[in-house]
Q: What sequence folds into this?
């Protein structure tokens, strides 16, 4: 072989060797590193970014330091619900996923989450007993939040950080309009009257330059306004958006704002509002004087309008007897079906659901209180530590705590088609406020559409449960139940009692018993209760 | 077949096999699977259950499905002619002999290089009813007639025209294709037409358009497919899958997406995808039929 060619071949060999080495080390190093300790590594996907993600990352680090068996690997992702959906369908989900509440009900209906009831039953009771009941476990949370963890009689998730809404008012704008800055509106009539006083028009052009209140700002309460008026969205199994007279009254009120200030005026003025998380936010830029906002709003005030003079109070009373109305929401931590380390995932959820109630200093905060403190939110736990209560960064955190205890604190309806229902109410709200449809027309359309979807969804659930119940293996298992044994899916705490009935009551569920027995794709094992 | 040919065939197939596998796994299988799912109750998270033509039957009575289809056809009717006329006109202008032409061509192509998400956010501000540059320019002109400019994306009546107007921004690709078509028109035909006394317009009508008709046809077909599948701009601009305001921008692909990934009705969404496919094929055939006698292939 000529010397030149030999050199090229030799050089190529060297390159090939280096590439092979890189490839091998690329494959081996992560494997070696992950196996470098005896701890179980679990993955946790969360939706947050920025300071909220940092807060959870710190809490995760605290959990990792607090014990020596489990390491949580935190990953902040956009569109976490869709990614979790695809990963679960593909059989490789994370061990813990941070979902929005509506995802939990929708995923639970599709059998995509593992219920936590069995993990809870394996925990000691607060009084030192052997097995907690789900009710005992959930008693740590304020009731409105606890209720959001359950669906169809099971516990599907633990709380991560909650939200609570209140009326925020700009005290400087109140003062300028001749209103008492310490006296927010207490009733709907007062809200409307104050809004009128706070509204300003350009004396030359007559254009609106400031509004006291606008129902569509922010635009995420289209579904909650009917509840504020004493209405209902769901009554048992019936959709009631278009049949409850309170809802009509509510949407007539929404329409009244556009009629009062003029469609073109409101449209032109509100099109100048910037994004929520920006200095052009209508409330932060002083364009709108009163808004319903969540506990998180203080973070944006501190960031974009530090020193802004504002107050926080319950929603004004819109229906007799519905005082201290508020809308609660929360992020939830769930274990997807097929997660590889459900027990370790539960340990992490348990840690996040706890707190050091004796904390006197910031570095003594733990679990729930640490993440809520760092995110500037209220803790959903009934008990707060002295430090959390007295040194919380939100100046009105006490108001939110009180509101969380209000008997009129509401949350979104727990139903598998909530995203669709909510989109429909948003569209209806748009149509009414833009005077494209009358409230009666819009409500009737929404009623018809959601009733159809609801019945389609329920039919799908029934179809699926009867399909599972009719499978030969399921039938055999149901008819040959061994006394004293319960059936359990692989890594799945879903249980069926020996007599073939679910061991917890199914509420709001027309589902036959077979629904929770998983056969296809799951190993069925007999387990002593 | 000689042994040499067999040997070559084996090697040829071996070299193509990766493509066959990729095409089969990532194209053929998903397409066929979606056809099967369209007849199933399927949420992605569970096994599909056969329900026959229920999804298709439901579609016929789904009001929102028809709204999204109507919105898409209206949008296509507005944006397709606008895009074709503007891109052809620009190509004609950029085909003239002027100094610095490469710079002009680059400038007019540049918007196509901007990512759709970035340009959608930019256009949101251009169309802003209060602070938008468009209304800033229109206000004094319309003011002369006592009128005010529309609030574009805040007004259901103007949201689709605004979307169509915005779609013209991304015509760079079709413009370049027109340009290449124009450059293939033989110069002697223009000279002959000029000698015969044809003016500019007649030269365009009788020489340029017939000889660029294959390119126009190609752009028309691609335009039909592209506009009927529009998703990203409207998803970014309306901020969610509602088609705000009041469903005026709920395009077909957006409704399909929300049905599949928010409502977890993948079976129904698959059925919608197949209806869209049939619609695109039908419109393509219609366009082919209508243009059949008007396409002049050179040579």
A:
């Amino acid at each position: 072989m000529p010397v030149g060619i030999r050199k090229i071949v030799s050089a190529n060999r060297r390159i090939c060797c280096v590439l092979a080495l890189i490839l091998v080390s690329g494959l081996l190093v992560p494997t070696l590193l992950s196996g470098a300790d005896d701890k179980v590594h679990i993955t946790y996907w969360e939706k947050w970014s920025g300071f909220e993600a940092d807060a959870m990352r710190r809490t995760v680090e605290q959990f990792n330091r607090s014990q020596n068996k489990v390491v949580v690997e935190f990953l902040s992702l956009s569109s976490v619900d869709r990614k979790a959906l695809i990963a679960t369908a593909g059989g490789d989900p994370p061990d813990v996923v941070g979902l929005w509440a509506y995802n939990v009900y929708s995923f639970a209906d599709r059998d995509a989450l593992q219920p936590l009831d069995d993990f809870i039953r394996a925990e000691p009771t607060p009084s030192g007993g052997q097995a907690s009941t789900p009710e005992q476990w959930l008693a740590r949370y304020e009731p409105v939040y606890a209720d959001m963890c359950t669906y169809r009689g099971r516990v599907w998730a633990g709380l991560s950080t909650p939200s609570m809404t209140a009326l925020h008012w700009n005290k400087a704008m109140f003062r300028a309009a001749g209103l008492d800055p310490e006296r927010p509106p207490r009733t709907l009539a007062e809200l409307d009257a104050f809004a009128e006083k706070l509204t300003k028009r350009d004396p030359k052009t007559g254009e609106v330059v400031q509004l006291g209140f606008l129902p569509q700002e922010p635009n995420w309460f289209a579904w909650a306004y009917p509840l504020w008026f004493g209405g209902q969205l769901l009554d048992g199994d019936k959709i009631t958006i278009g049949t409850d007279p309170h809802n009509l009254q509510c949407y007539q009120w929404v329409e009244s704002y556009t009629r009062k200030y003029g469609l073109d005026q409101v449209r032109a003025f509100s099109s100048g509002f910037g994004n929520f998380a920006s200095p052009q936010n209508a409330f932060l830029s002083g364009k709108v004087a009163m808004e319903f906002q969540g506990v998180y709003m203080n973070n944006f005030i501190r960031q974009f309008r530090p020193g802004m003079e504002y107050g926080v109070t319950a929603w004004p009373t819109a229906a007799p007897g519905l005082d201290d109305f508020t809308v609660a929401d929360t992020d939830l931590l769930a274990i997807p079906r097929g997660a590889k380390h459900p027990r370790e995932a539960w340990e992490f959820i348990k840690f996040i659901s706890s707190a050091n109630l004796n904390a006197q200093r910031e570095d003594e905060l733990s679990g729930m209180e640490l993440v809520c403190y760092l995110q500037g939110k209220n803790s959903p736990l009934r008990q707060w530590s002295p430090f959390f209560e007295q040194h919380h960064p939100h100046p009105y955190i006490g108001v939110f705590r009180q509101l969380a205890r209000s008997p009129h604190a509401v949350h979104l309806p727990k139903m598998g088609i909530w995203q669709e229902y909510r989109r429909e109410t948003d569209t209806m709200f748009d149509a009414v406020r833009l005077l494209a449809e009358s409230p009666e027309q819009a409500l009737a359309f929404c009623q018809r559409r959601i009733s159809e979807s609801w019945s389609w969804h329920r039919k799908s659930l029934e179809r699926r449960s009867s399909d599972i119940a009719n499978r030969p293996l399921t039938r055999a298992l149901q008819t040959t139940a061994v006394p004293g044994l319960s059936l359990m899916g692989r890594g799945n705490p879903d249980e069926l009692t020996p007599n073939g009935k679910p061991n917890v009551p199914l509420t709001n569920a027309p589902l036959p018993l077979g629904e929770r027995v998983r056969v296809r794709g799951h190993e069925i094992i007999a387990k002593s209760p | 077949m000689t042994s040499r040919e067999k040997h070559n065939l084996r090697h040829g197939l071996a070299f193509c096999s990766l493509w066959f596998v990729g095409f089969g796994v990532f194209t053929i299988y998903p397409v066929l699977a979606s056809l099967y799912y369209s007849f199933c109750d399927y949420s992605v998270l569970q096994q599909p259950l056969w329900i026959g033509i229920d999804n298709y039957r439901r579609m016929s009575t789904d009001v929102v499905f028809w709204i999204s289809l109507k919105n898409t056809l209206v949008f296509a009717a507005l944006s397709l002619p606008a895009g074709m006329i503007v891109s052809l006109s620009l190509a004609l202008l950029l085909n003239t002999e002027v100094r610095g032409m490469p710079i002009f061509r680059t400038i007019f192509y540049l918007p196509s290089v901007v990512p759709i998400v970035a340009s959608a956010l930019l256009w949101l501000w251009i169309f802003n009813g209060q602070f938008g540059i468009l209304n800033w320019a229109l206000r004094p002109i319309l003011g002369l007639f006592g009128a005010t400019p529309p609030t574009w994306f805040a007004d259901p009546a103007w949201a689709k025209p605004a979307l169509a107007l915005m779609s013209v921004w991304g015509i760079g690709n079709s413009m370049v294709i027109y340009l290449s078509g124009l450059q293939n028109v033989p110069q002697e035909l223009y000279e002959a037409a000029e000698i015969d006394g044809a003016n500019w317009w007649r030269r365009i009508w009788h020489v340029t358009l017939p000889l660029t008709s294959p390119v126009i046809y190609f752009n028309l077909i691609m335009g039909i497919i592209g506009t009927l599948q529009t998703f990203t701009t409207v998803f970014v601009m309306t901020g969610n899958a509602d088609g705000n305001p009041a469903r005026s921008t709920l395009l077909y692909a957006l409704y399909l997406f929300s049905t599949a990934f928010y409502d977890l009705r993948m079976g129904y969404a698959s059925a919608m995808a197949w209806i869209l496919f049939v619609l695109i094929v039908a419109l393509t055939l219609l366009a082919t039929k209508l243009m059949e006698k008007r396409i002049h292939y050179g040579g």
Notes: DSSP finds 13 helices and two strands in chain B. The first strand of chain B starts at residue 40 and ends at 41. The domain at 60-294 of chain B is CATH 1.10.3720.10 (MetI-like fold). The beta strands of chain B are 40-41, 49-50.
